[in-house]
């Protein structure tokens, strides 16, 4: 599953506010590009290709988007029949998208209603990452300078700039 890169970056900046370790890591990332590599490595991603100084708290979210998209695209190029699901599509049409996903996975489409109900449950409830907590926090501002730097980074990873549609090849859709 992927999401609009700007929304990912802003969400991760809000999330970092609830974690002292993440706050510290993002501050250290302003000094050393090795921090982004270590953070991505700790998430199970190969951070070597994404070793970038984090000039903004939004940079890490862009790096996570770029890293996961790169892994997905490499898998498709190797011939693996993997498909993406766009978060915005799932939120806009949850029942239809659940049916498409279940059908792709060769699972009974009759489970779609149950899947939609499961989407309504906050998987992070009772934690500092709960939607009710994160939703109260203010996300980082996207200044023109920050946008320009993030767009340079996105271009490096062959992704569209912030604010432009990003529909990844092989995305499941219900339209």
Classify the secondary structure makeup into a structural class.
Answer: mainly alpha
Percent helix range: 40-55%
The biggest beta sheet is recorded as: 2 strands, parallel
Number of strand elements: 2
User: Approximately how much beta-strand content do the residues carry?
Assistant: under 5%
Number of helices: 9
Q: Which outline best applies? A: globular
- SSE string: HHHHEHHHHHE
Order of strands across the biggest sheet? 1-2
- Cα Rg: 17 Å
Overall pLDDT level: 90
Number of structurally distinct domains: 1
Question: How far apart, in Å, are the first and last alpha carbons?
Answer: 17 Å
Uncertain stretches of 5 or more adjacent residues: none
Describe the protein in words.
The protein is mostly helical and 175 residues long. It has one domain. The chain has helices at 5-16, 20-29, 34-42, 59-77, 87-92, 94-104, 112-119, 131-134, 144-156; strands at residues 84-85, 171-172. Helix 1 packs across helix 4 (59-77). The longest helix has 19 residues, at 59-77. The two termini are 17 Å apart.
Give the arrangement of secondary structure elements.
Layout: H1 5-16, H2 20-29, H3 34-42, H4 59-77, E1 84-85, H5 87-92, H6 94-104, H7 112-119, H8 131-134, H9 144-156, E2 171-172
Parallel strand pairs: 1-2
Helix pairs in contact: 1-4, 2-3, 6-7
For this entry, give a set of tags.
mainly alpha; 53% helix
Brief characterization of the structure:
The chain has about 180 residues and is mainly α.
